[in-house]
């Protein structure tokens, strides 16, 4: 019996290893105009990406993933956590969003993310009471539905759930939530679920002007942090090992850790630029491919999900203007900089999205014949409130435009996001439509995506169907 069990475990382990191999990406969908999910899935496949992490379990996204060999982490948004403290609701969620896709040729769901960074200090504790009960209910509902061995519930946590007064080896869970974190990690351990952490070297740099720039990357050059026998030369390792130490402090130093988000933005801040992103990913991907691990977990394969796949122009910019520029692809599925996802350092542009449908080649710009400029500021503000002007800020790709250039940029962003409706290029007579490309230098005046046909035709098709029915009944009555 004993040895038989061992073989099964080993087989299981092999399978597990097989499944977790390779790199994942975060596929967020907070963009006003989106690439069709099928186009995105094709793009994932063209680039050999076999794992995605979602922020919900949207039916259209899941349908596009069905039948592929892409492994999926589905998610329950924070605002649904309170509902999941009810076991029946959790069971229902699992039925609707997990069991539903469990057929041959369905979706390969591997994890359920319960919430997204629910313990961020900036949430003022709003999700402290609900996260753990929701996690327990979802994990138990997965077990009840027969997925106990194959699908695990985890909670993607921001790195501010732990800290260290000094060096990584002194890592511990944040004092205000240490008891809660201990219960959660014990629960992960009981269920064979991993700890999921989001690590952002960019944010270390963004938050602290004195942060040594080279320490954010993986190519040395900074003064190491000395921690006993260990010398840390990059903040990713130091951060990861602070977590390992925090886990060790509660007796679970070997709990599996996956990195739910890691990446570098390309616009919206002086340090958010393509050259830095290229440098960051180049270092990160090489070490991941070499299974280098970290000083406290050497020679291990770390499961990692890059953040993110595509730029999202509807994200909140409360954390910073860079928030809308995390994609390794632009809004339209064009690659931004060379990289090698296999970590061999053969950096070249990734395969772009195929058959992308754009709006016509028309831009909305400042009208140089406009007489009254007194309302220019107000109109720029209006345009930027309802579109994305984060590229205009200090240190960004369009920061060197003059006032009229600023106006043109803002008007165009609004016009594009509105689907180039003529009435969206008026701005009290200050704007005009042109077929001339106003892009200059690093500043791209974009043409937006045509909305996906399914979104467009379905209300129309419904309308026609209703009309046919009405006409049919009318002719019957005649
Ligand atoms: C789960 O499925 C339901 C029913 O299809 C859907 O309304 C809901 O949005 C899904 N949940 C998430 C988090 O996407
Ligand atoms: C948290 O509290 C601060 C200050 O009291 C407030 O400005 C902020 O809006 C709150 N955030 C949330 C998510 O409730
Ligand atoms: C969490 O629960 C405690 C005790 O039941 C309560 O005092 C506290 O107000 C709750 N906090 C939130 C954010 O709901
Ligand atoms: C252009 O817009 C940006 C962002 O709103 C602003 O910081 C900058 O001062 C503007 N430049 C000019 C010349 O008006
Ligand atoms: C506009 O010009 C820029 C730079 O010259 C170019 O990169 C971009 O592709 C052009 N846009 C369109 C829609 O042709």
UniProtKB/TrEMBL annotation:
Q: Which domain of life is it from?
A: Eukaryota
Q: Which residues form the signal peptide?
A: 1-22
Q: Does the keyword Cell membrane apply?
A: yes
InterPro entries linked to this entry:
GH, Glyco_hydro_17, Glyco_hydro_17_plant, X8
From the Swiss-Prot or TrEMBL record, what is one GO molecular function term?
A: glucan endo-1,3-beta-D-glucosidase activity
The X8 domain extends over: 362-445
Q: Which Pfam families match?
A: Glyco_hydro_17 (PF00332), X8 (PF07983)
Q: Which GO terms describe its cellular component?
A: plasma membrane; side of membrane
Where found in the cell?
Cell membrane
Q: What is this protein called?
A: glucan endo-1,3-beta-D-glucosidase
Origin species: Dioscorea cayennensis subsp. rotundata
Query: Which gene holds the coding sequence for this protein?
Result: LOC120277295
């Amino acid at each position: 019996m004993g040895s038989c069990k061992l073989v099964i475990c080993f087989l299981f382990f092999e399978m597990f290893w097989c499944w977790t191999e390779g790199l994942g990406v975060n596929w967020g969908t907070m963009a006003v105009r989106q690439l069709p999910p099928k186009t995105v899935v094709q793009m994932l496949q063209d680039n050999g990406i076999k794992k995605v992490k979602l922020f919900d379990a949207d039916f259209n996204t899941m349908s596009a993933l069905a039948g592929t060999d892409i492994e999926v982490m589905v998610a329950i948004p924070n605002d649904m956590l309170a509902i999941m403290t009810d076991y029946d609701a959790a069971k229902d969620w699992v039925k609707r969003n997990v069991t539903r896709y469990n057929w041959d040729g369905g979706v390969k769901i591997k994890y359920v993310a319960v919430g997204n960074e629910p313990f961020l200090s900036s949430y003022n504790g709003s999700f402290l009471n609900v996260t753990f009960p929701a996690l327990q209910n979802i994990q138990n509902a997965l077990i009840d539905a027969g997925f106990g061995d194959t699908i695990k519930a985890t909670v993607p946590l921001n790195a501010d759930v732990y800290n260290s007064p000094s060096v990584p080896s002194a890592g511990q869970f944040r004092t205000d939530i240490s008891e809660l974190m201990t219960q959660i990690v014990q629960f992960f351990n009981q269920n064979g679920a991993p700890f999921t952490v989001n690590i952002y070297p960019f944010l270390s740099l963004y938050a602290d002007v004195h942060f040594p720039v080279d320490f954010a990357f993986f190519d040395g050059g900074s003064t190491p942090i000395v921690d006993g026998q260990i010398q840390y030369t990059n903040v990713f390792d130091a951060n990861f090992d602070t977590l390992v130490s925090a886990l060790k402090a509660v007796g679970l130093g070997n709990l599996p850790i996956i990195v739910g988000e890691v990446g570098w933005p390309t616009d919206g801040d002086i340090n958010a630029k393509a050259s830095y992103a290229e440098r960051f990913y180049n270092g990160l991907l090489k070490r991941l491919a070499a299974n280098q691990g970290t000083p406290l977990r050497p020679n291990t394969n770390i499961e990692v999900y890059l953040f993110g796949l595509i730029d999202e122009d509807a994200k909140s910019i409360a954390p910073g203007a860079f928030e809308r520029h995390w994609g390794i692809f632009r809004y339209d599925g064009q690659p931004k900089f060379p990289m090698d996802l296999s970590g061999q350092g053969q950096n070249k542009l990734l395969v772009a999205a195929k058959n992308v449908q754009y709006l016509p080649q028309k831009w909305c710009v400042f009208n140089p014949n406009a007489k009254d400029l007194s309302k220019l500021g107000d109109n720029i503000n209006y345009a930027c409130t309802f579109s994305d002007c984060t590229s205009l800020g200090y240190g960004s790709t369009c920061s060197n435009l003059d006032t009229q250039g600023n106006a043109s940029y803002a008007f165009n962003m609004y016009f594009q996001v509105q689907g180039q409706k003529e009435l969206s290029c008026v701005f009290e007579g200050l704007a005009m439509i042109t077929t001339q490309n106003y892009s200059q230098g690093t500043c791209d005046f974009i043409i937006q995506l045509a909305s996906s046909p399914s979104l467009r035709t379905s209300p129309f098709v419904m309308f026609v169907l209703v009309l046919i029915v009405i006409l049919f009944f009318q002719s019957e009555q005649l």
